[in-house]
Amino acid sequence: MAINTPLSFSLLSSLTFILLTISSHAFSIEEASICDLQLAFKQNQLTSRKLVEFYIGEINRLNPILKGVMETSPDALFQADKADYERRIKAPGSLAGLHGIPILLKDNIATKDKLNTTAGSFALLGSVVPRDAGIVVKLRKAGAIILGKASLNEWAGFMSVKAPNGFSARGGQGENPYLLSANPCGSSSGSAISVAANLVTVSLGTENDGSILCPSNANSVVGIKPTVGLTSRAGVIPISLRQDTVGPICRTVSDAVYVLDAIVGIDYHDHATQEAAKYIPHGGYKQFLKRHALKGKRLGIVRNPFLSSASESESQAFEHHLQTLSQRGAVLVDRLEIANMDTISTGTAEGTALLAEFKISLNAYLKELVASPVRTLADVIAFNQKFADVENIKEFGQDLFLAAQATNGIGNRENAALSNLAKLTRDGFQKLMCDYNLDALVTPGAGIARVLAIGGFPGINVPAGYDDSGVPFGINFGGLKGSEPKLIEIAYGFEQASKIRKPPTFKALNFTRMLLSSLTDV
Description:
By secondary structure, the protein is α/β, with parallel strands linked by helices. It has a single domain, classed as Amidase signature (AS) domain (Amidase signature (AS) enzymes, Alpha-Beta Complex). The chain is built from 20 helices and 13 strands. It has helices at 7-24, 34-42, 48-66, 76-88, 134-141, 189-196, 213-218, 253-263, 272-276, 312-327, 341-346, 348-368, 377-386, 393-396, 399-405, 412-435, 449-455, 484-498, 506-509, 511-520; strands at residues 69-72, 102-106, 145-150, 167-168, 172-173, 202-207, 222-225, 245-250, 298-302, 331-336, 440-444, 459-466, 472-478. The chain has an 11-stranded mixed sheet, sandwiched between helices. The longest helix has 24 residues, at 412-435.
């Protein structure tokens, strides 16, 4: 793993920060929001350089245990100095938004710089991308600092059904910062782990089916899964352009919305963005961060089957949160059910379509690389077989890769599956939303992810509580395509009314063990 700052610097940085905080009541970076950071910039309490140094120090201190970060950028401090200079001369756009704010990108999002883009696999180590991903172009334009790449389920979880959540050959096993033995979920595990543990301000994840919503749910952070096409997928290692989307993972709804505003919009390398651009509201999404917007919102409550696997703590919390939503003026339409949920849950039709789409999409991505050890899915399979020990193929296999390679384009079987998915969406989620004139569907946890995935629908996960062991769980608000404004109002209203999120307790419980472990690695 390439972490580019020595541990001695990280310890010095952390101790210096603590001493400054004690002696002069300096601005506290931990848990700070984008607005907090921008205010600290304006009041000369903080610089982007100090912010990057602090996060690099925390990554070197905690990442040997958490493994949420794949690698940090050797250009991050240069970018920080540039942002500080632009702020000093009051360059246009330098005093707000993401300017000077560090961000981690999931390691399947291409950057044309010194960082690798590998989806966690050694097969793509050293590959050269043709350009920045479309969303990275927008982030750089907004002045964000690309701090590095976050870890993930290898190949976004599409190599093997046996591989554990948060694991990749390059990154190792990502750990949940609230309870190291708990499932961090995936595939955007590192993006969620890093934000939750204060290794970075904000991050980006990608989702095909649950990969933003699930890790956000498991790590007590906010994840926005946008309508498919609202954010560009150009330059993102794909699974299926029919379902793939890119979205923010942050500690607060407002931070997630600031990031969303920066990354939405047309990218001519991704045709889907041209159609989805009609959903982007004039003036962006920040205008929907309203504390009292729950009043009058019609919320459909779906318990079955999502509460069946919930803990007692989660079930009780869900009931309490429904009361909160009602007290804030929302109209609850309770005990609804999504038609054909059992069929959707099996994932049979989705799996049939995804296997063929993955082979087509990945081959197209690999072909466009300027340089790469692999050029086709077949090459990746051969690489994995050759380096079976390194890629953990002996332990987990590559069954999904092999099944995808056996497909031959979109044929009768795949078309039938796609038709079935469209019907399940039309007769299920869509019909329920329209029949009851709902603004959003409310469900515990991230179990509804597949329903949203097959229809290209958006969802927002917000922290909702912790079980008896301290493991987090969330609440999900899902809606029809383009309904992000309503979902943001609902999610923000709930967040402000509940104020559930708290930092991970691992820092208190395991600090000594982690520090000793880190020192052993020096």
